[in-house]
Model the fold of this input.
Amino acid sequence: MDELTKTYLQIPSERLGVLLDNDFEVLYKFHKEIRDKWIREKNCSCISNLKKGEILRCSHLKKEIKKQTEKISKRIEIKTSILLVRNLLKFQRNQNRFDIF
Done:
């Protein structure tokens, strides 16, 4: 387990949820900036086929976004996994409480 995961495990669930929301917001801004820059600079031939009002969905852009947002995506993945495990443990404890009857 790396240091980042250990740190996230020590953060309360509510605060970790807020951090996760902030990361999603940052990720969204990165996606938007990369997409706008990609279209403005016409980095691939897919843009020439783009009509007004259409959304650009090309594999070139997806690869670029994935490459540039790798670190923040990893942080989101770790936080989401920790929150998921905590919620499953909480659910299991509640189930065990009802199994006594």
Notes: The mean pLDDT is 84. The CA atoms of residues 39 and 47 lie 7 Å apart. Helices lie at 3-10, 13-41, 59-68, 70-99. Residues 13-99 form one domain.
